[in-house]
Amino acid sequence: MTNTDICNMALSYLARTMIKSVEENSEEARQCQMFYETTRKLLLRSYPWGFANRLIRLAPLDRALPGFSFVYKYPSSCLAVRYVYDTAGAGRRIKEKAPFEVMMTEGDVTVIATDVEDAWAEYTADVRDVDSFSPEFSEALAHYLASQMAMPLTGNANVKMTEYQLFQALA
């Protein structure tokens, strides 16, 4: 499966012509180009999809931020940090969610600030490989993409709403 296949699923839900590539010169391809990446990232950020779940020991930074004991490097390819915890708190991470904040510091460096020493993070990665997507994610992405493209391609608000509801049922 490719991103073009997911776009074609979305286009089929809208009863539109399929495309051979998102690079082709058609209105359908232009709409896919416009919405695919932001919709994929938004959907990944919004829900804890298992295929995109990652665990990493956070790298401490030599920075101080008022109100926090520790500052850590933000993981590369991270779209959303779900939990921050130490080794002893791993089993309680959901019930006893440790407070943390993701923020930008001087020099536009994204960091995780917390009071957790020797921290681990569970996060959602920016998975781009369509073959790694779960079938549920691919289907949800296609319906959400269809809801995003419905007005420009069909002008029908009812189709937009129906596709959004189908997306919600899968997410």
Describe the structure.
This protein has 171 residues and is an alpha+beta fold. Helices cover 38% and strands 20% of the residues. It has helices at residues 3-13, 27-46, 135-154, 157-170, and strands at 53-57, 70-73, 78-85, 100-105, 109-114, 120-125. The strands form two sheets. The protein has a three-stranded antiparallel sheet, covered by helices on one side. Strands 2-5-4 form a three-stranded antiparallel sheet, with no helix packed on it. The radius of gyration is 19 Å and the shape is elongated. The protein starts with a helix and ends with a helix.
Helix content: 25-40%
What's the overall average pLDDT, rounded? Answer: 95
Number of strands: 6
Please tally the helical runs, counting DSSP H or I stretches of 4 or more residues.
Answer: 4
Which series of helices and strands comes N to C? HHEEEEEEHH
Instruction: Order the strands across the largest sheet as they lie in space.
Output: 1-6-3
Beta-strand residue fraction: 15-25%
Low-confidence stretches: none
| Shape type | elongated
N→C terminal distance: 20 Å
What's the alpha carbon Rg, rounded to whole Å? 19 Å
Task: State the main characteristics.
about 170 residues, three-stranded antiparallel β-sheet, alpha+beta
Give the SSE map.
Blueprint: H1 3-13, H2 27-46, E1 53-57, E2 70-73, E3 78-85, E4 100-105, E5 109-114, E6 120-125, H3 135-154, H4 157-170
Antiparallel strand pairs: 1-6, 2-5, 3-6, 4-5
